UniProtKB/TrEMBL annotation:
Keywords, ordered alphabetically: Membrane, Transmembrane, Transmembrane helix
NCBIfam families: dass (TIGR00785)
TM ranges: 28-49, 56-89, 95-117, 163-182, 194-217, 237-260, 295-316, 328-345, 366-384, 404-423, 430-449, 461-482, 494-515
Protein name: Sodium-dependent dicarboxylate transporter SdcS
Stored InterPro entries: SLC13A/DASS
Family, similarity comment: Belongs to the SLC13A/DASS transporter (TC 2.A.47) family. NADC subfamily.
BP term (GO), one: carboxylic acid transmembrane transport
Lineage: superkingdom: Bacteria
Localisation per UniProt entry: Membrane
Length: 517
């Protein structure tokens, strides 16, 4: 049996085990959720009915989100329906969450990202970066370059979309250099430490890069909104970038060191990678009108997202212009303006064409965005706001603060990071944020420390989860390549989880003072 056959067999066996585990987890969660729902109702008789009912709904939601017994979006919809059915709040209050500004930020951002994919703008950017100098001749530089692209691109489109774009390029480079290597009697690099480092870098960098901006990942918008809902404090686009950009850069350096140290490349030169990139760029052809129009829409979104924050820094928070911008140029408004431009900016008509005008993005393409995340966000907002309104947040916060014995800002922040990390290893990032943030913020309030900091740390940590294929979609995508043995993912992910949490907690505690949060 060849090395390739052994690796393929091992990957198939592990995938089968993972599938069986997921099935068992789903079945157990499906049964356990209603049981916990009933137990919470029975055992919380001392609480007012709205708190009892909401606590029961929350227990059901957490179990089904963690176990993924049914689709996350379906659980989210069921949760808000149960809130109305059980009398936690009326339908206007519950369903009114879907008028939240962040919903429209999701919509606009997803539509712009869809246009990038449709017209190949993201792929052109990646190939252009890789063609610079002698980047792809060096194994280490290639890994770092993919990481830098993953980090920067995922700041504006989802980490899954970023990996879906970079993954085939990475596979192509690995295949090209492996073909040449084996023809010359060398090692098959498709199953090497270098290929493992490259695949893990594509996945991990996209996950940490989303932290650069609030719109970089859905769970961040969800978490930020929950934090603002429960604390009454806001953090705008510019403040978020100022807070997290240094942290992400340090994380990226740590990530490069961890992956290249634990998966040291066997070769010092990659023959054939340069010609592969050149061939891929040639296939793209000239810069299209669709790509140009998408750039215009994206630039408009960034301009409108950053203008209120920059104006605040220059003119001061109390200036009349700044107040008007914050009230009228919200992130949702900016996102929809930019997304709408894609339906207004036309593509070039073909010579001799007499058909109707074709816009940069069609509605048929636009509706392919992830609507499930939007439903998940709406449910998270409902549960978070009702937790505050019913007093359940205060009850939970006081009880958990006593249980854990935490009383300082540092201790609560560490707790938030660890809780977010652990839950994100077993369930989706969006679900993790919806579970952890409503718990850690009340704890902080109960002990009298600034709840914004642990809330933001919990939100960021919910995007972690580097150890298992099931932890994040990017992990699952690269694991499916067969180039990432489970042992290497576990080892690399564990080390980076620990170091990443240390960087996150330390960075937020320090940067929050500098930014003035």
């Amino acid at each position: 049996m060849t090395t390739q056959d052994r690796n393929d067999a091992a990957a198939t066996t592990t995938a089968d085990r993972q599938e069986r585990f997921d099935v068992i987890r789903g079945r157990v969660g499906l049964a356990l959720g209603p049981v916990l729902f009933g137990l919470v109702l029975l055992l919380t008789g001392g609480l007012p009915w709205p708190q009892r009912a909401l606590a029961a709904v929350l227990a059901l939601v957490v179990v089904w989100w963690v176990s993924e017994a049914i689709p996350l979006a379906v659980t989210a919809i069921l949760a808000i329906v149960l809130c109305v059915f059980l009398g936690v709040a009326d339908e206007d209050t519950v369903f009114g969450a879907f008028g939240n500004d962040t919903i429209f930020t999701f919509l606009g951002g997803f539509v712009i990202a869809r246009s990038m994919t449709v017209h190949g703008l993201d792929r052109r950017i990646a190939l252009r970066v890789l063609s610079v100098g002698s980047i792809v001749r060096s194994p280490a530089r290639t890994v770092i370059a993919f990481g830098a692209m993953g980090m920067l691109i995922s700041a504006f489109i989802s980490n899954t979309a970023t990996v879906a774009m970079l993954f085939p390029i990475g596979i192509g480079i690995v295949s090209a250099v492996s073909t040449i290597s084996t023809e010359e009697g060398g090692k098959d690099l498709r199953y090497s430490r270098w290929s493992t480092a490259l695949m893990l870098m594509i996945a991990y960098s996209a996950s940490i890069g989303g932290l650069l901006t609030p719109i970089g990942a859905p769970h961040q918008l969800i978490g930020r909104d929950l934090v603002e809902e429960q604390t009454g404090e806001t953090i705008n686009f510019v403040e978020w970038v100022l807070l997290f950009a240094p942290i992400v850069l340090v994380m990226f350096v740590v990530l490069c060191l961890v992956l290249l140290r634990l998966n040291k490349p066997e070769v010092s030169r990659l023959d054939g990678a340069g010609s592969y990139i050149a061939a891929q760029r040639a296939e793209l052809g000239r810069f299209s009108r669709g790509e140009a129009n998408t750039c215009v829409a994206f630039a408009l979104a960034v301009l409108l997202w950053t203008t209120p924050g920059i104006a605040s820094l220059v003119l001061g928070e109390n200036h009349g212009t700044v107040t008007w911008l914050h009230e009228h140029v919200t992130e949702g408004v900016a996102a929809i303006f930019a997304a709408t431009a894609l339906f207004l900016l036309p593509l070039r008509r073909q010579a001799g064409s007499t058909g109707r005008r074709e816009a940069t993005l069609s509605w048929a393409e636009a509706v392919k965005i992830d609507w499930g995340v939007i439903l998940l966000f709406g449910a998270g907002t409902v549960i978070g706001s009702l937790s505050s309104e019913t007093g359940l947040a205060d009850t939970l916060g006081s009880g958990l603060a006593e249980q854990f014995g935490v009383s300082s800002l540092t201790a609560i922040t560490i707790l938030a990071a660890v809780a977010g990390l652990i839950i994100s290893e077993t369930t989706s990032n969006t679900a993790s944020a919806g579970i952890v943030v409503p718990i850690v913020v009340p704890i902080a309030v109960a002990v009298g420390v600034n709840p914004l900091i642990p809330g933001l740390v919990a939100t960021a940590a919910a995007g972690y989860g580097f150890m298992l294929p099931v932890s994040t979609p990017p992990n699952a995508i690269v694991y499916g390549s067969g180039m990432v043995p489970m042992t290497r993912m576990l080892r690399s992910g564990l080390v980076f989880d620990v170091l990443g949490v240390a960087v996150l907690v330390t960075g937020v505690l320090l940067m929050s003072q500098l930014v003035g949060i």
